[in-house]
Amino acid sequence: MSIQLKDTGLYRTDAYINGQWVSGDEGEVFAVSNPATGEIIAQVASVSAEQTSEAIAAAELAMQSWRALPAKARCDLLERWHQLILDNKEDLAQLMTMEQGKPLHEARGEVLYGASFLKWFAEEGKRVYGDVLPATPDRRSIVIKQPIGVVAAITPWNFPNAMITRKVAPALAVGCAIVLKPAAETPLSALALAELAERAGLPAGLFSVLPTSDVVAVGGEMTSNPTVKKLTFTGSTAVGKLLMRQCADTVKRTSMELGGNAPVIIFDDADLEKAVAGTLVSKYRNSGQTCICANRIMVQEGIYDAFVKKFSQAVKGFCIGDGLDEKTTHGPVITEKAAQEIHSKVESAVAAGAKVITGGKISDKGTHFYEPTVLTDVNDQMRLFKEEIFGPVAPIFKFSTEAEAIAMANDTEFGLAAYIYTNDMGCIWRVSEGIEYGMVGVNETAISSEIIPFGGVKESGQGREGSKYGLDDYLETKYICIGGI
Ligand code: SIN
């Protein structure tokens, strides 16, 4: 194992349940590998359904005294955890790059992004207000907000740190306890976060981390256990639908941050430099493995050729490789299977007439690397138009009119993020309002942060994460009527 950390205590391979570091039942483990090299970097404890149930029971108990604390006490603790994450930024980034593959500069950015949710909710958690409603003279009608209860979270491998803190911070801030199943590909970042939470003084049971290779058993326990009052999930739409069905029997609240199929709509009057730069970032961030990545790049016919030329020139300059190498601009995709799946979408587009401007194949750097790709002559019948690509492939579609662009953008079951490039204020308003998406970036694709409500519509999910709205997902609204006044 070649992980070199300044603080070796952050390399944890046991599960963290009720404040204890424990092995999987019967010593079960699963291997975690570095997607850039294939090297096995850890054997991690694989927890069972029984251990999940123990973590949930511990969470329920721990929550009783946690929710009774003044909000300030809970939030002070989140502040300490935030600071420890900042202090250990470099180690957390190294761990992330080794298990996930993203280049170090992106991993460092994600650690800061992840930490920002702790800071934000440490502040926002002090502002859980209720209401006094106008009522008749002999009664008072009051609304209070209370923590929803034990939360279960299932998080993805593409953002092994920030997707955790985006859920855990609001849950803890309002007085809930949370049990987390991190992705099997990237449990080390989650376990390092638990180590830092413990160092910050988080009481046992409030945050358990349950790595597992038996997702069906652990997910089944999380969704069926009646003590869990809410499930929060980031991942694919197919799995999200399954989890929602499983949660129906105990009527759990769910938050779902699911797949996307983001259009970037570039109008003739757009600033070409800005449109190219923004689309490059959006498309190729994390090698295209981001739910809000540009999936369908739609360019108006008057600017189409100039855009394709400038965009593909920039893509040809990318340097793919091991994310630990500071020269690397783009890392591997998560698995060999993922690279093959990306390639099958490209192949089917090419068979239907798409033209490869650059890339178009698995790289000779290794089976996990897909060449940054640009395709033209693409159309709305292709899989690349209908499905989330989740890889470094940019299909560039052509459109003529604003109405056509809106129709194309909406021609999908997804509705997470969309982007528009134009300087026409009327067009900005018409298109922003006309497209069915939870988030719209106008002349900007770097739209994520802790202060915004992240989330989608249609089959991209429900609920919002981050921002003042992100607290609501962890709160119940209670109405109290005081009569006889
Ligand atoms: C995601 O891919 O779901 C997260 C992206 C982000 O937070 O910017």
Tally of contiguous helical segments: 14
Side-by-side strand order of the widest sheet: 14-15-16-13-12-17-18
What would CATH call the class of the largest domain?
A: Alpha Beta
End-to-end separation: 70 Å
Going by CATH, the architecture of the largest domain would be: 3-Layer(aba) Sandwich
List keywords for this structure.
single chain, 485 residues, alpha/beta, Aldehyde Dehydrogenase, Chain A, domain 2, 2 domains, seven-stranded mixed β-sheet, six-stranded mixed β-sheet, 38% helix, globular, binds succinic acid
Question: How would you describe what is shown here?
Answer:
It contains 14 helices and 20 strands. The chain has helices at residues 49-68, 71-87, 89-100, 104-124, 162-174, 187-200, 215-224, 237-248, 272-284, 304-316, 336-351, 383-386, 402-410, 425-434; strands at 15-17, 20-22, 29-33, 40-45, 131-133, 140-147, 150-154, 178-181, 207-209, 228-234, 253-257, 262-266, 294-300, 355-358, 373-376, 393-399, 417-421, 439-442, 461-462, 475-482. A 7-stranded mixed β-sheet has the order 14-15-16-13-12-17-18, with helices on both faces. The protein has a 6-stranded mixed β-sheet with strand order 9-8-7-10-11-19, with helices on both faces. A 3-stranded antiparallel β-sheet has the order 5-6-20, with no helix packed on it. The longest helix has 21 residues, at 104-124. The mean pLDDT is 97. It binds succinic acid (SIN). Succinic acid is lined by residues 158-159, 234, 257, 290-292, 448, 454.
